[in-house]
Amino acid sequence: MNFQRIAAVAVSFACSASLASESIQPPWGKEENLGQKMVMESTAVCTDGKGHYVVVTPEEERGGDQLFYGDGKQFVQVPSMPWTSGTSFVDPRFFNKSANPNFRGQDWRVVSEVEFDRKEKKCTMRCGEKNIPLTVVETAQGADILRKASYAPNPQEFAPYALLRDTKGNYYFVDKGIKTLEQKNYRVFIGPRGGLKAQKMTNVIADSEGEIFSTKKGDLRLVLDKAKSSVWIENKKKSLELRQVPVEENLPLIYNDLGVYEGIRLGTPCDDQ
Question: Of 187, 173, 147, 152, whose CA–CA distance to 230 is shortest?
């Protein structure tokens, strides 16, 4: 495993990740010029009828669309994926076993999407293998919702970085801050599936040989050489060899079964499904 790069999901999240308490300007701004007014006119609001709304708005740089998701009062930006129209997004909590496991380096089995047909004015959503029908809000009502709402970056702060397992079934999981100023902020979790506990970090060392994550309980040593074993050293004496578990191939396990991300919101349209 290459521990020098974040998992593929982190790349997607990093596009717009930040604290949801911060505010951002929507693409149509304050509708002060013709360009902004045209964006607003081309923006659609879709709803599941249960108080959840998906905003599909043109994205100029990509030439596609951009998504926002929220309750009608506040919307968060949904991270766009490269090489897509902008309405596909990573959500490892939902799995589509029939999708391509490796297309341009991305596992599409953990990708969900919103489809909006501007001509037919139809909106649908897929979370993994689950299809959710959406209704397009009438244009004037949708614009009113958009003008009154507040907007925030995606709420994700951390993304998976490394996953290991010992012979007793305990997992050793490391995640990493997404935002530019937080990319040296690591967290270590240890425990059985469903019961991993955060460890109090004391130091992080990184060099050409690998990384050492020091905690109050012990040191987790990750090595870059696949021929060598990563180890957990407790109290500087007890050494336990660990098996590396590929992060990119185990995102559903990480997000659904380890317990680390239980109950968190990823800021995607699948949050409430």
Answer: 173
